[in-house]
């Protein structure tokens, strides 16, 4: 059954198809949805994804309904840092090409819901549905899956047919929006700075709720939306002048010595935790990078060596952010702790530019919704 927030009457409805690969795409989509709602409260959203509905309830004040639907495969993860290519291929073989019956079924749903637009955060499924429904499609991405899979095709040519199919689907979107850090340049209707959800709560209140002393230096350790246990907790205890906060590191909130363990879903909004930190250490995912970027805090970043997105992300961090590169084995073992003084010696960078989510919301309003008010239809 769809899960819904409070409906507003007489709303314009947007269908949003979101990749469930991690929480980064959902976080970016939530930021865009909230920004659209902030400039036009009459807009509501029909969200198609397998990302848990609580994520959107925690992120949005806009009107929305969640529809549980597999919209994308991405990569099948074994751990936060490792993917299974064989399982990914098996899933892609089952998922692609899209059956005509599935397109027809979801198109009927989108029409019944009176959606006037489909936005896709790298989920390809919404694009042919928009075409069949006769409404515009908008693709929001910093990479597309055909580009990612090219890295693996040289070793396994079974990816090639999926690459060709997905490339044609992505290219058929009516509007193409790229968000920094952009992995694959090329034509776009709009390119924006990083897109992140806005901070809500003051640094003082967040630190107080975490039980941190006022003068404490706080380090956030995160692997994004993936649960993770750490083997270096005893080493953290040897640094009593620092306090560490670890989302997703346990089933319940626990305050032990100089560190705080938080559950996968907690009462703390992740952008607020980033903003309250003196430094962030962990895996580079899109939402974490974007939140760290807008907070301006130093970033001890770990990238996946086997993921094509890593190289442009590292280039972006080195150019636009304050950071220290950490090798994956050093992060997992705790050897990164020796780099902590260097990380905390970096300055926080003030950000004055507009969030990419606001740019996208204005694009949607100015380029698309103006047509709705005059009764124009998409061909």
Spatial separation of the terminal alpha carbons: 32 Å
Which residues sit in consecutive blocks of at least 5 with pLDDT less than 50?
5-9, 373-379
CATH class of the largest domain: Alpha Beta
Shape field: globular
Radius of gyration: 21 Å
The name of the CATH topology of the largest domain is: Rossmann fold
Largest sheet geometry:
8 strands, mixed
Helix vs. strand class: alpha/beta
Give me the number of helical elements.
Answer: 15
Please tell me the overall pLDDT.
91
Q: Can you tell me the CATH superfamily of the largest domain?
A: Glycogen Phosphorylase B
Q: What's the count of strands?
A: 15
- Tell me the count of domains: 2
Strand order of the largest sheet: 1-4-3-2-5-6-7-8
Describe the model.
- The structure is a single chain.
- With 379 residues, the protein is an alpha/beta fold.
- The protein has 2 domains: 3-196 and 356-373, Rossmann fold, CATH 3.40.50; 203-344, Rossmann fold.
- Helix content is 38%, strand content 19%.
- It is built from 15 helices and 15 strands.
- It has helices spanning 24-39, 53-59, 85-95, 100-112, 126-133, 145-153, 160-171, 203-209, 233-237, 270-275, 286-295, 310-320, 328-333, 340-344, 356-373; strands at residues 3-4, 12-18, 43-49, 63-68, 115-121, 137-141, 175-179, 190-192, 217-222, 242-247, 254-256, 259-262, 279-283, 299-302, 323-325.
- It has an 8-stranded mixed sheet, sandwiched between helices. The chain has a 7-stranded mixed sheet with strand order 11-12-10-9-13-14-15.
- α1 crosses α15, α4 (100-112) crosses α5 (126-133) and α6 (145-153) packs antiparallel against α7.
- The longest helix has 18 residues, at 356-373.
- It is globular, with a radius of gyration of 21 Å.
- 44% of the residues are buried.
């Amino acid at each position: 059954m769809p899960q819904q927030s409070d409906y507003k009457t007489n709303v314009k409805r947007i269908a949003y198809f979101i990749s469930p690969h991690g929480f980064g795409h959902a976080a970016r989509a939530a930021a865009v949805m909230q920004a659209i709602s902030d400039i036009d409260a009459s807009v509501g959203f029909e969200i198609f994804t397998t990302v848990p509905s609580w994520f959107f309830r925690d992120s949005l004040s806009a009107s929305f309904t969640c529809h549980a639907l597999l919209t994308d495969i991405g990569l099948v993860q074994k751990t936060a840092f490792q993917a299974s290519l064989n399982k990914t291929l098996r899933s892609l073989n089952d998922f692609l090409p899209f059956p005509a019956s599935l397109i027809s079924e979801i198109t009927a749903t989108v029409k019944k819901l009176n959606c006037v637009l489909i936005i896709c955060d790298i989920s390809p499924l919404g694009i042919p549905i928009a075409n069949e429904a006769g409404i515009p499609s908008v693709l929001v991405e910093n990479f597309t899956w055909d580009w990612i899979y090219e890295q693996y095709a040289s070793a396994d040519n079974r990816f090639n047919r999926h690459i060709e199919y997905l490339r044609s689907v992505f290219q058929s979107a009516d509007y193409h929006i790229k968000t920094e850090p952009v992995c694959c340049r090329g034509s776009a209707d709009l390119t924006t700075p990083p897109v992140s959800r806005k901070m809500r709560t003051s640094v003082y209140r967040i630190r107080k709720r975490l039980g941190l002393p006022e003068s404490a230096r706080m380090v956030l350790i995160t692997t994004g939306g993936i649960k993770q246990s750490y083997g270096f907790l005893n080493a953290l205890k040897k640094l009593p002048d620092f306090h560490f906060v670890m989302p997703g590191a346990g089933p319940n909130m626990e305050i032990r010595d100089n560190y705080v363990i938080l559950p996968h879903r907690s009462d703390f909004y992740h952008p607020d935790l980033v903003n309250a930190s003196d430094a962030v250490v962990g895996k580079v995912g899109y939402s974490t990078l974007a939140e760290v970027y807008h907070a301006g805090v130093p970033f001890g970043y770990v990238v996946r060596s086997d993921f094509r997105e890593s190289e442009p992300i590292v280039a972006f961090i080195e150019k636009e952010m304050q950071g220290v590169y950490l090798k994956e084995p050093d992060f997992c073992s705790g050897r990164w702790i020796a780099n902590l003084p260097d990380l905390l010696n970096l300055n926080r960078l003030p950000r004055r530019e507009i969030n990419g989510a606001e740019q996208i919301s204005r694009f949607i309003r100015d380029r698309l919704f103006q047509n709705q008010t005059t009764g124009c239809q998409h061909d």
